[in-house]
Amino acid sequence: MKSIKIFLTMLVFIGGMTACNDQLDVQNPNNQTTYDFGNTESDLKEAIISCYNRIRLEGTFARVGYTLDAVRGDEVWNSSQQWYLEYDNLNSPGTIGIGDEWIWRDNYHVVNRTNFVLSKVDNVSMSEASYNQIAGQALFLRSLAYYELATYYQNVPLITDYASYSDINTMYAPNNTQDQVFDQIEADLTKAMQMLPSRDKGGEWAKGRVTSGAAAGYLARALMFRHKYSEAYTVLKDIIAGKYGHYELTADYGDNFREGSKYENNSESLFEVQFLDYGTGGTDEEWTPVNISSEATQGHAVESNYASQEMGSWGDLAASPWLYNLFKKENCTDGRLDPRLYWTLVTFESEYNTYTNLKTAAYPNGDPRCNTIYQKDITATPLSNTAQGGVSIAKFTNARNNIYSSITNGLHCGINLRLMRYSDVLLRAAECENELNGPTQTAIDYINTVRRRVALKDLKLSDFPSADALFEQIANVERPKEFGCENGRGIDLLRWGFFYDAGRLNQLIEHGYYKLDGKASTEELTAATATSSSYKYYYKGHEYFPIYQSTLNANPNLTGNSANKNEDNGPAFKAKWTIRPVVK
User: If you average pLDDT over residues 353-363, what whole number do you get?
Assistant: First the structure.
């Protein structure tokens, strides 16, 4: 009898425990895992937004992921002579975080999240339109990350399967060749271009998101990186014809660098990184990707590097005197300065007062948007760095926006970074036409469309007797004046092979001259008058950034790239493609 009582007691106890377990088996909606999240259309719409969040990190486009390509180019130099120095000089030893690690780390965050979305989307029931929108965005953003990785680090691991992260043998992936990475980029962008709606058909949904036009624009870029000019030209002509939505140049060049809904995501923008307008975000600055704060500022710190230290910035990066003098060589048809100078560099020009009653304005008729620099008139060009000197950069800063009274350092600037504009489509079309058919009126017309916006006189075909001559105009006049100090110039120098030809490398040295005299030097510098040149210290192979040594140590399957090994990429480049010679 006693045994029966014990047995019954145990049954009651077990039954009670089982019932409690059933009642307590509740999932915390705020603590979901990748296993139980992403299984509905609603989940995936949230997940794709989180992918956009990763392109707003410091190593993607909130600071160094954007500015390090500019300093790799010949339009920008390191005026602090500290932060960024090894990337300006192109000789990093591979042990410095800002370029060797952060860009790598943060772009692989984008890869990881987009791979997650793509691993889930095929198994979720939804309409074809929703599927195309979700998958198309993920494919583009993954391609954008790999485009950055391959053009910064050359040969990187290509991970396209989210399941790879669950096994240490596949998580520690080996290098893929740059060609293999670009093959994947082209394949993904081709799909995205076909799946995504145009900006016109996407309506309000498309504002700030990836569209078919963005995918087409980046596909053309990827194709041109490997000199596939015929294929790229087809895509570019389709963009111009409106196949992927209507694009046109803004009447005012400056509208591409202003903050606010009136200017951002405008008719010229194929794709831009979205940042909250100044003062509308939180107060927490998320310098690392692990700090996910609901009170994040959600701005960028490009201004902190570009703006004048006299006005309160960190004073790290300045514009090259070569770029300034390039603007000064050609005035508009009405005699005024090229307004792109005003929007690119912070200089005092007495000529401005000829057209307005405002000392710092470049536009006629007293445009009230162009009246002050940080609420002050200036009578001299402010210093980029108060110790070393240099001319500060205006783009994507408050210098020409006048929204707040002084520089606010950190992740606070709210101006969207336009990663690709329609003017790039036109100038790339001109380049492709020239590469395929030599100098033609068609190529000249594309260029003149961009020049007319800022009232420069038309180029004439008769002035360009050869494809080399027109290429020189595109590469070293039209593109630097239109895109000066923006992300992308360093990538152009890579694809053109300028590091692998003695004449071109000497040209880069001349473009890169700077003067450490504590002044905003704007004179044309020579070897005799310059303090030095960024490219004087260039090590072969360091046109790419080295893979961080700690990353190599952690992954036994990973090997260093040309920068880690100080290897010359010139012979391999010249075996595939030609480098156009310098034309004076």
Answer: 44
Q: Which of 57, 61, 82 is nearest to 317 (CA)?
A: 82
Kindly state whether residue 364 falls inside one of the protein's structural domains. yes
Q: Are 501 and 475 in contact (CB under 8 A)?
A: no
Predicted TM-score (pTM) of the model is 0.92
Residues sharing a CB contact under 8 Å with residue 565, sequence separation 6 or more, in sequence order: 541
* Cβ–Cβ under 8 Å, residues 434 and 339: no
Contact 282, 276 (CB under 8 A): no
Distance, in Å, from the CA atom of 197 to the CA atom of 136, rounded to the nearest integer, reads 9
201's enclosing H/E stretch is helix 199-206
Residue from 333, 334, 208, 224 nearest 273 by CA: 208
Burial of residue 410 (number of CB atoms within 10 Å: 0-12, 13-18, 19+): middle
From 361, 389, 415, the end of a domain falls on: 415
Range of the structural domain that residue 155 is part of: 39-195+536-576
What is the C-alpha separation between 221 and 264, in angstroms, rounded?
22
Report the C-alpha dihedral over residues 156, 232, 487, 550, rounded to 10 degrees.
0
Question: Across residues 473-493, what is the average pLDDT?
Answer: 98
